[in-house]
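Protein modeling request. Please complete all fields; requests missing the sequence field cannot be processed.
Requester role: graduate student
Desired output: 3D structure, C-alpha cell encoding
Chains: 1
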Amino acid sequence: AANGIGVRIETTLPDDLPPALVDEGALQAMIENLLDNALEHTKSGGCISVTAQAANDEIKLAVEDTGCGIAPHDLARVMLPFEKAGSSEADSANGVGLGLPIVKALTEAFGGAFDISSTLGQGTKASITLRAAPRQSGSTAAA
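Delivered output (143 residues):
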C-alpha cells in the first residue's frame, strides 16, 4: 500500500529482540494504528521509519514519519478521541481521530508508556515502550 502512494517504509528491527509482554492482537493493533496514522500524513516521496530496540527489560518501538507534523499546541488534543491536528493538511486526512488514543490506551493497559513528538512541517515520531519478557538464561559451555 505504501508503495502505491509513493511513501518509502524503512525498518530497523534487531534479530535478537525479545518478546514483549503484550497480547499479540493488541500489539498488532498498536503497530497498524501507528503506521496508518503515519501513512495518512505523509505525502508521496516521504519516508516512514519503524525501529525497535531492547534495553533494561523494555522494548521501545517507534514509528517516525516525514509528514506534515503536529503543532505543539495540538499535541495534547490529538490524543483525545475524534480529534485531529489543526492544520488544514492534517484535517484533510481520512482518519476519524481514534488511532493515537487507541495506541495509548492499549500501551498503558499492558503497563507500557506512549510518547509522541512532532515538528510542524517536518514529521512525527510516536513511540511505545513495553516490558520485555525475561530472557532465558542459556547454558554456559564448559571451558
